[in-house]
Amino acid sequence: MTSKPHPLIALLASKGPVAVAFSGGVDSSLVALAAYKAMGDNAIALTGDSPSVPRRELEQARMIAQQIGIRHQILGTDEFQSPDYVKNDGSRCYFCKSELYSQIHRTKALLGFQTVCSGANLDDLGDYRPGLSAATEAGICHPLIEASMTKAMVRELALEWGLEIWDKPASPCLSSRIAPNLSVTPERTLRVEKAEDLLHDLGYPVCRVRYFPGDVGRIEVPKNRLPELVNHFKRVKEFLLTLGFVQVEIDPEGFRSGNLNQLIPLTQKMRWTQPA
Predict the structure, then answer these.
(1) Mean pLDDT, range 150-177, rounded to an integer
(2) What pTM does this model have?
(3) pLDDT at residue 266 in the model
(4) What is the assigned CATH class of domain 174-257?
(5) Quick count: other Cβ atoms within 10 Å of Cβ 160?
(6) For the chain, domain boundaries
């Protein structure tokens, strides 16, 4: 007796040929895998590329798409040409996602898909997510939300389906490291990328280098690894100074996801918070 497909596969099969906005993170990778299971070559994964995307993340996205077997294409995006994006006033993600979805829609006729899907999950609702507002305006569907899947459920299914990155930590874009109201530029995101590359090479897979006014770089790693970072600090500081940072610090509070969001005014956050 043939077993029924997972509800996520059935959901995607009902949407016709689909494009998945694919970052290579666990959420969009699960959607891409489900789409491929549902419709094979009628599914395609599309990855945006700009100075805000770390090269290591772009290469991993290519690798994951290849492992899944899904068609994959890289699309250049031009969010850095938008003054609203560059000014980084707390709504940056809205303009980034608007640009990405615009570029994806432009390929619709050429690549032959009907629906664009994101990797947003149920936990993203009720949170500060300007990008979800852009998705609503662009008519993007969210299969994981429609399937009532939380992040924990996404990881569980990704493990069950054999995705090697099922436990991959979140990796927001490089622009998210720039303090609010400090202009986002390719030069600054490149400094952050090279600084974090060094930390990765030193064995810190979870790390952030936050960029503050005055070219201050503040390093975050998990709190239990702060003593190790102190031992590496001389080497790390010297390297970051060569990149153009003027001051380098270790954040004694350790790694906190979305740490810079606390600097965004509450009124701005409320504007972009999605109803749960």
Answers:
(1) 95
(2) 0.91
(3) 44
(4) alpha beta
(5) 10
(6) 7-160, 174-257
